[in-house]
């Protein structure tokens, strides 16, 4: 296998980025980027820590990531499985990457920055849904923000309903847990309980 081991080799293969790939990157949120953030109900959150990397999904109603000012974003943390992999990473290494997706749009938005976790009661309460405050709020100081062109979305045909996979053709969470736990967890019972459990821990 032939591998690339230097930046010079990489640049010789790929060349230099065009002007449009560079001028789109800013260190602050402009109104056009704000519009994308406000329209997004989903973001992939990437973090790094001593144990390695983590990328996890975050989702809520569009605009759930709050624009505090042109250089600061706020992301509430809701109830989940309590692994807290991303949060543990942020406590020890604040570097984060965010990738915003907007259903129906090919444009995505990328944000790189440095995060801290706030448990300020007033701030967490300001993110309350159905009377339940956020458990914590990730405050992201922006280093870079830029849009990503639609090539990946177009190639994947991500938003085409005719291409959606039938969930029944895939292993269920219960199926997977039964295997990984060596049958200690009853997979069928887990799947049967999931809808109500999800509602109980939604916020």
UniProtKB/TrEMBL annotation:
Name the record gives this protein: Pyridoxamine 5'-phosphate oxidase family protein
A Pfam cross-reference name: PNPOx_N
InterPro entries: Pyridox_Oxase_FMN-dep, Pyridox_Oxase_N, Split_barrel_FMN-bd
Limits of the Pyridoxamine 5'-phosphate oxidase N-terminal domain: 31-149
NCBIfam families in alphabetical order: PPOX_FMN_DR2398
Alphabetized Gene3D superfamilies for the sequence: Electron Transport, Fmn-binding Protein, Chain A (2.30.110.10)
Domain of life (superkingdom): Bacteria
Organism: Aquibium pacificus
Cited PANTHER family: FAD-BINDING, PUTATIVE (AFU_ORTHOLOGUE AFUA_6G07600)-RELATED
């Amino acid at each position: 296998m032939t591998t690339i081991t230097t930046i010079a080799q990489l640049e010789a293969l790929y060349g230099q980025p065009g002007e449009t790939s560079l001028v789109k990157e800013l260190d602050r949120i402009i109104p056009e980027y704000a519009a994308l953030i406000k329209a997004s109900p989903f973001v992939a959150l990437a973090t790094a820590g001593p144990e390695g990397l983590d990328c996890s999904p975050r989702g809520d109603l569009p605009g759930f990531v709050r624009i505090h000012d042109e250089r600061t974003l706020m992301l509430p943390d809701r109830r989940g499985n309590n692994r807290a992999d991303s949060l543990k990473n942020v406590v020890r290494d604040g570097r984060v990457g965010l990738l915003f997706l907007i259903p129906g749009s090919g444009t995505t938005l990328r944000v790189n920055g440095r995060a801290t976790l706030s448990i300020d009661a007033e701030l967490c309460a300001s993110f309350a849904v159905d009377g339940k405050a956020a458990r914590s709020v990730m405050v992201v100081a922006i280093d870079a923000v830029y849009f990503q062109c639609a090539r990946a979305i177009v190639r994947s045909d991500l938003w085409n309903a005719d291409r959606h996979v039938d969930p029944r053709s895939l292993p269920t969470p219960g199926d997977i847990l039964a295997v990984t736990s060596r049958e200690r967890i009853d997979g069928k019972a887990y799947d049967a309980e999931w809808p109500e459990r999800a509602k109980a821990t939604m916020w």
